[in-house]
UniProtKB/TrEMBL annotation:
Residues 263-267 are annotated as: ACP-binding. It catalyses: malonyl-[ACP] + acetyl-CoA + H(+) = 3-oxobutanoyl-[ACP] + CO2 + CoA. NCBIfam families: fabH, PRK09352.1. Homodimer. This is Beta-ketoacyl-[acyl-carrier-protein] synthase III. Residues 111-188 form the Beta-ketoacyl-[acyl-carrier-protein] synthase III N-terminal domain. One of its GO terms (molecular function) is beta-ketoacyl-acyl-carrier-protein synthase III activity. GO terms for cellular component: chloroplast. Pathway: Lipid metabolism; fatty acid biosynthesis. GO terms for biological process: fatty acid biosynthetic process. The keyword Chloroplast applies. It comes from Liagoropsis maxima. Keywords: Acyltransferase, Chloroplast, Fatty acid biosynthesis, Fatty acid metabolism, Lipid biosynthesis, Lipid metabolism, Multifunctional enzyme, Plastid, Transferase.
Length: 339
């Protein structure tokens, strides 16, 4: 289909939710061998939120979604599609349909996207394709993760980094298209640099059947990460992705009003901005308060930026995500407020 003949995709509203339990660096330094000084200077993180054990990812995703629906003045029953980007779903078959039920979005089809910290970005781009072809008009895209349940709380290299949150965006059909372009990449050769690996139960019986019968079970291990390699990957690939996306949209770094990066490390935000010669005054950062919230980090940062009134009509927002897979990518939005 000719791009100019396609429908436009427009961000109608955003929402987010964070749990009330707040864990400071000082608290962690009483439980593991770390310090506020180390965490603050190496990552920019001061505190993170944790979901209480009687709550599920669906509770968090529902709260963020209801906020976006309310701000967009749209009813859940008018949604055509729900995409839940998460890597901490409560069912291996996916959790999006539980979110659909929780919202009462009875006309929506729902599915999950599992792409860790790039999940929301990939979900947003996927949603825009359904809108641009005319298949759907109102889509809810949610990024939600509760990695606090997947980190080893005695491993100081990883547990200090992550927090729980959810963020949501309503993407709607419009005559003008505000998602100007996108760039997505994967490198599965380096998947082991950041992973929650699955281990199968050992088969002890030395029989022919044991060679082909399905293993009895297994378990997921804790999140593992080679921090240095992931850092190098982010700082080298994200600027290239942003530049390629800007080129496709016939824009330059000077046109950027706001840079919204996945909030993994303040030093990564600064290194990427520095490589692209973008002043830090244009870089949205809330990592200090939430740590790395995986798929939720971009929609949470976006929602806070919209709520604080920084973003004005006509602003160019460059959004870039990166993480496990490895996956990374960029999209560019021209912001038009409708309400
Ligand atoms: O969302 C997915 C994307 N994830 C990321 O982008 C994460 C990218 N990586 C990073 O942000 C950084 O690599 C980290 C923050 C994870 C680590 O920072 P680093 O500057 O690369 O530190 P390092 O791993 O090289 O560790 C330096 C030292 C080590 O001690 P030795 O071997 O030099 O004696 C670590 O054992 O710091 C030690 N260390 C700590 N010390 C106090 C590691 N974690 C801690 C800690 N507290 N929490």
């Amino acid at each position: 289909m000719n791009s100019s003949a396609m429908n436009g995709a427009h961000i109608l509203s955003t929402g987010s939710a964070v749990p009330s339990i707040c864990i400071s660096n000082e608290y962690l330094s009483n439980t593991i061998s770390t310090s506020d000084e180390w965490i603050s200077t190496r990552t920019g993180i001061k505190e993170r939120r944790l979901l209480p054990k009687d709550k599920s990812i669906i509770d968090l995703a529902t709260e963020a979604s209801l906020s976006a629906l309310q701000k967009g003045l749209i009813k859940a029953e008018n949604l055509d599609l729900i995409i839940l980007a998460t890597s901490s779903q409560n069912d291996l078959f996916g959790s999006a349909s539980q979110l659909q039920a929780s919202l009462g979005a009875k006309h929506a089809v729902a599915f999950d996207i599992t792409a860790a910290c790039s999940g929301f970005l990939i979900g947003l781009i996927t949603a825009s394709q359904f809108i641009r072809t005319g298949a759907y008009k109102n889509i809810l895209v949610v990024g939600a993760d509760i990695l606090s349940r997947w980190v080893n709380w005695t491993d100081r290299r990883t547990c200090i980094l992550f927090g729980d949150a959810a963020g949501a965006v309503i993407l709607q059909y419009n005559q003008t298209n505000d998602l100007l372009n996108f760039q997505l990449d994967s490198n599965g050769n380096d998947f082991h640099q950041l992973s929650i690996p699955y281990t199968q139960t050992q088969i002890h019986k030395n029989t022919v059947e044991s060679l082909y019968t399905y293993p009895q079970g297994g378990k997921y291990n804790y999140l593992t990460m080679n921090g240095k390699e992931v850092y190098k990957f982010a700082v080298s690939q994200v600027p290239i992705s942003i530049e390629e996306c800007l080129k496709k949209a016939e824009l330059s770094t000077d046109d950027i009003s706001w840079l919204v990066l996945h909030q993994a490390n303040q030093r990564i935000l600064e290194a990427v901005a520095n490589k692209l010669d973008i002043p830090m005054t244009k870089v949205i950062s809330n990592i200090k308060y939430y740590g790395n919230t995986s798929a939720a980090s971009i929609p949470l940062a976006l929602d806070e930026a919209f709520n604080s009134g920084y973003i004005c009509n006509g602003d160019i927002i460059v959004i870039a995500g990166f993480g496990a897979g490895l996956t990374w990518g960029t999209t560019i939005i021209k912001w038009h407020a409708i309400h």
